Amino acid sequence: MMDKAEIMDESSIARAVTRIAHEIIEKNKGVEDLVLIGIQRRGVPLARMIAQKIKEVEGTSVPVGILDITFYRDDLSLLSEHPIVNGTQIDFAINDRKVVLVDDVLFTGRTVRAAIDALMDIGRPRIIQLAILIDRGHRELPIRADYVGKNVPTSRNEVVHVKLFDIDRVNVVTISDMEKGIKH
Question: Quick one: average pLDDT of 40-59?
Fold first, then answer.
């Protein structure tokens, strides 16, 4: 699959993460009772990047958790016979906390719905907010992000690729034309 355009380079991703971190601090009037939970896979390094920026600004570390939503997906039977499970790791209570879910791309909203279901099985947060690097539209559920790095209008025949250093050894966001039913 050939990328047809670069949407964000490393510096624009860094600026978006900085802006999101500042918006989270402002909206929550600081970081008291705040936790970040990254959705596997690329939501995890994004959550860590946001947490690092919050620490630089506030001088306080915000806990970061990892959420695997594999078994909460409504399309699990369509994915594969043996889905890849990356694991959930949340080493802190989420009851009565302000949880910011973090993911790379917001598309139909189904991933976020699955993440909310998974969180509610773990505990009962005071509030759940959503931070997204790319909002590409085409919602199928009434879900919106509280914090958005960049809105990118796309067609349903396009794919947004977020590549992050922790996983891909590069920080870049590209767009390409869809190939044989792959969505993101």
Answer: 97
